[in-house]
Amino acid sequence: MKERKGIITMKGQPLTLLGSGLKVGGPAPDFEVLANDLSPVKFSSFRGKVCIISTVPSLDTSVCDTMTRRFNEEAGSLGDDIVVLTISMDLPFAQKRWCGAAGVKNVQTLSDHRDASFGTVFGVLIKELRLLARAVFVVDKTGIVRDVQVVNELTNEPDYEAVLKVVKELV
Fold this sequence. Notes:
This protein has 171 residues and is of the alpha+beta class. The protein has helices at residues 62-75, 92-102, 117-122, 160-170; strands at 3-10, 13-18, 32-34, 40-42, 50-55, 82-88, 108-111, 125-126, 131-132, 135-139, 145-150. Helix 1 links the parallel strand 5 and strand 6.
C-alpha cells in the first residue's frame, strides 16, 4: 500500500497516510462502513445526492466534536439533495452515544473500524495511529470528487466556508 509522508502532522510531529489519496475531478471510490446499528453502508447508496464526507480521528476529542457539531448545524439548512457523513474509527456504539449526547441529528456518523476500507481508498488512514486524518471531501451527485481538504495539522479545523461554497455551487 502506498505511504505518503509530509502531508499531515499532529502537534507538529509528522504522520504517514496510507493510500493514494483522491484528486478533484476523479471518481470517488466505493467503500463499506458500519452504521450506528452495525448495519453495513456502501457509499454507492448515496449516489444522486451531493455528499459532504467529514473524517475525524475520534468524536470524543474537542476538535472533532466542534467539527461535527458545525457540520450538523450547516446540514440542517442545506436541503434534501445534500447528505453529510462523518466517518471515524470510533466504534458504532460510541458514535451513537456521542450523537445522542450532542444532539446531532443532521449528520450520519459511520464507523470505519472494521477494515478501514474508507481510510485506505480515500487515502486518509494514519499508519501510526490507525485513525483517520481530519479531512473533508465533497462528492457530486454522479460520484465525482469536487473538493478535497486534508487538514495539514490534526489539531486544526477545516475551512468550513470553502467546503460550503463548493457544495452550494453543486445544487
